[in-house]
Structure to design on (234 residues):
């Protein structure tokens, strides 16, 4: 009888664990992406790249790590009990052999890197000379307490300097008296009855807060679809 190839079995278990990690990574990221994309309005012309962008940003490290550890444990058990006739052991050994193949590991590695690669390839380029866009939102702030609109105290001089070179709207109407629906209106150009981001609902409704529907396109999505890098600091 030939001596047992222990180093080969250990390598196969480690390869199977890495493949199990990548398999869970791809499945979970794909599932989350499908759930989100199915509720978004990214089928409109010009927004299709957002599907790839969202998919490429899904990084379920913790769940994939747990799946890799479980795969390693099962692969080790399958190798240790390879000579036992126990229920389920043949299936575990088959899984270890399947995921322990280098071809399986390489294929899953390519599949895991595919969203990021496709997103980089199909990312739209902003038009030449596109300006930077900075949206500054200040909550709970009265316009009659700004020095550039006549308040006697000096408040926020930097904004006053900007106002001297900018267009200032001295009369503006908020779409709601509360932050949540107002911000949703600012970023969607929709009134609260259309975007649905309501707050302090009636007691009979059984809901206190209602989130904005994902089917509405926001300013950030429109800019991202035009090639802009978008982010928020709060």
């Amino acid at each position: 009888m030939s001596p047992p190839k222990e180093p080969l079995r250990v390598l196969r278990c480690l390869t199977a664990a890495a493949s199990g990690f990548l398999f869970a990574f791809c499945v979970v990221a794909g599932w989350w992406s499908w759930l989100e994309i199915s509720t978004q309005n990214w089928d409109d012309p010009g927004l299709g790249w957002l599907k790839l962008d969202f998919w490429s940003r899904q990084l379920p490290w913790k769940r994939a790590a747990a799946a890799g550890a479980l795969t390693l444990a099962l692969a080790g058990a399958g190798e240790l009990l390879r000579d036992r006739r126990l229920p389920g052991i043949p299936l575990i050994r088959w899984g270890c052999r399947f995921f322990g193949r280098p071809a399986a590991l390489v294929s899953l590695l390519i599949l895991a890197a595919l969203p990021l690669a496709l997103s980089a390839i199909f990312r739209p380029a902003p038009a030449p000379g596109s300006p930077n866009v900075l949206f500054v939102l200040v909550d709970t702030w009265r316009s009659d307490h700004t020095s550039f609109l006549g308040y006697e105290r000096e408040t926020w001089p930097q904004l006053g300097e900007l106002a001297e070179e900018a267009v200032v709207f001295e009369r503006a109407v908020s779409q709601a008296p509360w932050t949540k629906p107002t911000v949703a209106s600012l970023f969607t150009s929709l009134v609260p009855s259309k975007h649905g981001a309501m707050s302090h609902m009636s007691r009979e409704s059984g809901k206190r807060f209602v989130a904005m529907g994902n089917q509405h396109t926001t300013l950030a999505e429109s800019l991202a679809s035009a090639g802009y890098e978008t982010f928020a600091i709060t």
Observations:
- The radius of gyration is 27 Å.
- The longest helix spans residues 6-37.
